[in-house]
TrEMBL record:
<feature type="compositionally biased region" description="Basic and acidic residues">
    <location>
        <begin position="19"/>
        <end position="32"/>
    </location>
</feature>
<feature type="domain" description="Mannosylglycerate hydrolase MGH1-like glycoside hydrolase">
    <location>
        <begin position="719"/>
        <end position="886"/>
    </location>
</feature>
<feature type="region of interest" description="Disordered">
    <location>
        <begin position="1"/>
        <end position="37"/>
    </location>
</feature>
<protein>
    <submittedName>
        <fullName>Glucosidase</fullName>
    </submittedName>
</protein>
<dbReference type="InterPro" id="IPR054491">
    <property type="entry name" value="MGH1-like_GH"/>
</dbReference>
<feature type="domain" description="Mannosylglycerate hydrolase MGH1-like glycoside hydrolase">
    <location>
        <begin position="451"/>
        <end position="670"/>
    </location>
</feature>
<dbReference type="Pfam" id="PF22422">
    <property type="entry name" value="MGH1-like_GH"/>
</dbReference>
<dbReference type="InterPro" id="IPR012341">
    <property type="entry name" value="6hp_glycosidase-like_sf"/>
</dbReference>
<dbReference type="InterPro" id="IPR004888">
    <property type="entry name" value="Glycoside_hydrolase_63"/>
</dbReference>
<dbReference type="InterPro" id="IPR008928">
    <property type="entry name" value="6-hairpin_glycosidase_sf"/>
</dbReference>
């Protein structure tokens, strides 16, 4: 049964009524009905951020210190400018109406309304939030959502966490919430919040709190609804309102009416007899800043003051405002017992049917439909443990869809009611050259707390697993980064909010190609939209990052933080330049992906062959430059070491290889792509140009490997490295004393215990660190000097399969290096993928990724909830950094899918 907006029961679709291949489940049909961002089923979702405080867009300071400009301690009293945050919350896709959870255990000094963590100055060095929660489940239209928060029953130890972490150095582990002892004996509530849509604009809500502790404990649950403050900044005086509904047609319930100029009228109804508290989503300027008067006598913290401090005058007795909470009080919840509250958000006024039997039917249906949907997404042959991890990964990906509002021009200029900040607009300050940037979109975030903002290369990786559950959203995300209100007019993609002008690796084309594959090789319009914009981005790379036209690139940061001896984004002394192995490899990789897209498009329009030949030749030029470049014939390849290095070129042209074996030297492997056999027949211009190059420029065509002349449909491979150099690199990569870790490929060779270089009189040193960074470089919040990182491992495995398809059984290596275990290159790729998936597979009952933290407890209350970490210890596999980064670590769900054919079944690849 399904329920319409009135709550009346009526027969609805069941899974068996939609057996078509095109829409194999009810949820697949919903996706077809709402393909774009404006689709009705996408109006409401988990778009409310887990953290808005401490973000760049809320920082209006002269110093640019976002963490201190808008701190956690201010968040419950100060109105946000660009967004909102909350626990397990939802909002409309414009962020006007927000719903979230507030809790009070009758010990905390403030309501638990948002997630807490430490700033860098407070001792944070892993970007780890000091809370425990999990996205449990969800469907891509958000017809079904389930989120769980673990709430301690004792007073939350804010002060202890700050003081203990401030006293620790970088060589010590962070002091976590469980280290305080507050979670001992399971003295916490698991608070589940579940949403089931009866219709696109009719949400049934259930909040269940389970006492897992040994003693009875009190709990106050305050489901809260509020309007984003759009009126206080001097640009738009219009505001909606929330008011108590007095004349209820149904007893044993409370209700508020929500009016908004764009969304219209909604009602939030709470079952039972909760007290409804009202205040305004306005800053308490008197308490925060010593002002004499507030804009509202009942500011944002009014509900907190009423509940925690007992101040009855802190809330509006008239029953109106822009923020309202339903106060459910449970004085004693017995051990093992649970309490449940139910609410409904819809356009329909409360009635006898609001919580009728149809309400429960909606939950039952949506749960069943979610199971049915994932039965088609997650391969049935997987072990149950892998299915569980994959479904949790998809849940995290979907819950990390956040509304992101940021208009840089407005932000730089300040609002009419705020004092201007000339310092923030000084040349060279943050994002001053990105005034065109203006987004108000639902975007896939790496994490809802540590990274409540997008990062360009993270997002590209997100789109791979997202394409398995919601290909239209994945495509929309890739296109969005290329739109004129995101991409810089010069063609640069925005890197991340802290510095849009920084440089992330160019993985967008690779992601677009794989999303196209996962979506069934059917949406050429999507490829055209992405490809044409990436032409601009490619030109930016060539013009800005190949300063002397040698074909060897100077990418800078490239997302790998502290992988070098020094900050590669920082300006070098005059006359110096750093020629980067990884930047050059990324550009070769970029060329190949653009070539691949161009030849695919040329099957439908021959004019695209011109682009294919352009990128083919550009790849060949870069390949030649990887070996020698410039007037001094300096090579990135070190023959003695059998490895690629960055090279520092001095003003006099002499070169100093940065001889540290890191991921930088492995990335040339990415420069490999196979050329489909049908190119010989269907792309005659490409074939003709290749013949011409072989005749006139044979030295340039060396990277084209073929099992024939390459023009008759035989196998061809474009490769940045020769088979001989590939073998030498792989011998290091699969050596356990160097790069091969139990759970993937390390970012720095384990053999590099300490390595030093004298750079023009300055001694620089780095060493293998399998875990968190011991330096403050890039804030010290991530480490590329030893740990395993999911995204680059996935890329390396992907390219080993490319080599494997070409060489077959003719190219084998020993894994581990020096052993008798001989593997093909495709089997070598399986070793990498197996290590990554092994992070989440229990060993002696425990997942390696959960390490020594409480998440690694064998207690089922912890063991049932996998966490997805930012990166992993190079020796043990323990998860590090952000604890909920189902962004790129959500790629594990993709790895659990059967590998897709390289071409649709009706095409022959000749491979």
């Amino acid at each position: 049964m399904t329920v319409d907006q009135s709550g009346t029961d009526h027969p609805g679709p069941t899974p068996n009524e939609h057996p078509s291949v095109e829409h194999p489940s009810v949820e697949h049909r919903r996706l077809a009905e709402a393909p774009g961002p404006d689709g009705p089923w996408r109006l409401w979702g988990p778009y409310l951020a887990g953290r808005q405080w401490g973000t760049v867009r809320e920082d209006y300071s002269d110093s640019g210190d976002a963490w201190s400009s808008f701190s956690f301690e201010q968040a419950h009293r100060r109105a946000y400018r660009w967004g909102e945050d909350g626990l397990g919350g939802i909002c409309d896709r414009y962020g006007f109406v927000n719903f979230g959870l507030a809790l009070w255990n009758r010990h905390d000094p403030i309501l638990k309304e948002r997630l807490y963590g430490l700033t860098n100055d407070q001792g944070n060095h892993g970007e780890d939030v000091k809370e425990y929660w999990w996205p449990v489940d969800g469907t891509p239209t958000h017809s079904w959502m389930h989120w769980m928060y673990r709430y301690p029953q004792a007073e939350y130890p804010y002060r202890e966490l700050r003081e203990a972490n401030a006293a620790r150095g970088r060589e010590q582990r962070e002091f976590e919430l469980a280290d305080t002892g507050i979670m001992a004996d399971d003295r916490f509530f698991d608070v589940h919040i579940r949403y089931a849509k009866a219709a696109p604009d009719d949400l049934c809500i259930e909040i269940e709190a389970v006492n897992h502790g040994p003693f009875a404990a009190p709990l106050d649950i305050l489901p809260t609804v509020w309007l984003r403050n759009t009126w206080a900044w001097g640009g738009d005086d219009r505001r909606g309102d929330i008011a108590l509904v007095d004349d209820l047609a149904v007893g044993d319930a409370a209700a508020v009416r929500i009016r908004h100029g764009m969304l219209g009228e909604y009602y939030l109804v709470g079952e039972g007899a909760p007290e409804v508290l009202f205040c305004d989503n306005e800053t308490d300027a008197v308490a925060l800043f010593g002002k004499t008067e507030n804009l509202s006598p009942y500011p944002k913290d009014g509900i907190n003051r009423r509940v925690v401090e007992g101040d009855a005058d802190a809330v509006d007795p008239a029953g109106t405002g822009t923020k309202a909470a339903f106060w459910y009080r449970f004085g004693s919840v017995r051990p093992g017992a649970s309490v449940t509250v139910r609410l409904r958000l819809s356009h329909m006024p409360p009635s006898l049917d609001t919580f009728g039997r149809g309400f429960d039917a909606v939950f039952a249906d949506r749960r069943e439909e979610a199971d049915e949907f994932y039965s088609h997404v997650i391969h049935d042959a997987l072990p149950d443990a892998d299915k569980h991890v994959a479904r949790r990964a998809y849940a995290g990906m979907l819950w990390n869809k956040q509304l992101y509002r940021y208009d840089v021009e407005r932000w730089l200029a300040s609002d009419p009611v705020s004092p201007a900040s000339p310092a923030r607009e000084e040349p060279g300050r943050r994002n001053t050259t990105w005034r065109h940037f203006s987004l108000a979109d639902v975007i896939s975030m790496p994490d809802e707390w540590e990274y409540p903002w997008f990062a360009a290369w993270d997002l590209a990786f997100h789109c791979i697993p997202l394409a398995h559950v919601d290909p239209e959203f994945a495509k929309e995300q890739l296109v969005l980064m290329c739109r004129e209100w995101a991409m810089h007019p010069n063609g640069q993609l925005p890197a991340y909010e802290w510095e849009f002008g920084d440089v992330n690796p160019p993985v967008h084309a690779w992601a677009a190609w794989h999303v196209y594959r996962i979506d069934g090789y059917r949406d050429q319009d999507f490829l055209v939209r992405v490809f044409t914009k990436l032409l601009l981005n490619f030109s930016w790379w060539v013009n800005r990052k190949d300063s002397d036209g040698t074909g060897v690139f100077e990418g800078g940061f490239l997302g790998m933080d502290n992988i070098g001896f020094f900050n590669r984004s920082a300006p070098l002394p005059p006359g110096f330049r750093l020629e980067q192995s990884d930047a050059t490899s990324w550009m070769a990789f970029y060329c190949q992906q653009m070539f691949k897209i161009a030849i695919e498009l040329s099957r439908h329009d021959p004019a695209w062959q011109d682009c294919a030949t352009k990128f083919l030749e550009h790849f060949l030029t870069i390949s030649k430059a990887m070996n020698s470049f410039g007037s001094h014939n300096i090579s990135l390849w070190h023959e003695g070491d059998g490895f690629f290095y960055d090279v520092l070129v001095r003003p006099d042209g002499t070169a100093l290889p940065m001889r540290v074996r890191s991921m930088v030297g492995l990335l040339p492997i990415l420069g490999a792509t196979d050329v489909p056999a049908w190119v010989a027949e269907q792309c005659p211009d490409v074939t003709s140009r290749l013949r011409w190059l072989r005749k006139r420029r044979p030295e340039l065509v060396e990277p084209v490997l073929s099992a024939g002349d390459g023009a008759d449909g035989s196998r061809m491979l474009l490769s940045l490295v020769s088979p001989e150099r590939l073998r030498r690199i792989l011998e290091r990569m699969f050596d356990p004393t160097e790069f091969l870790a139990p759970y993937g490929i390390r970012s720095l060779s384990k053999a590099e215990q300490t390595v030093s270089e004298d750079i023009d009189g300055r001694q620089v040193t780095m060493q293998y660190e399998p875990g968190e960074s011991s330096t403050a470089l890039f804030g010290g919040n991530s480490n590329w000097r030893g740990p395993v990182w999911f995204p680059v491992n996935v890329l390396l495995a992907d390219k080993l399969r490319t080599y494997g398809r070409y060489f077959g059984d003719e190219f084998t290596i020993a894994i581990p290096t020096g052993s008798d275990n001989i593997c093909t290159l495709e089997q070598a790729a399986d070793v990498i993928d197996g290590g990554l998936t092994g992070l989440f597979r229990p060993v002696d009952g425990l997942r390696p990724a959960d390490g020594k933290r409480i998440e690694g407890s064998p207690n089922p209350l912890w063991a049932d909830h996998p966490s997805f970490y930012e990166y992993f210890d190079g020796d043990t596999g323990e998860g590090l950094g952000a604890t909920h980064q189902t962004g790129w670590t959500g790629l594990v769900a993709h790895l659990h899918n059967p590998r897709l054919p390289m071409e649709p079944p009706h095409r022959s690849t000749g491979l």
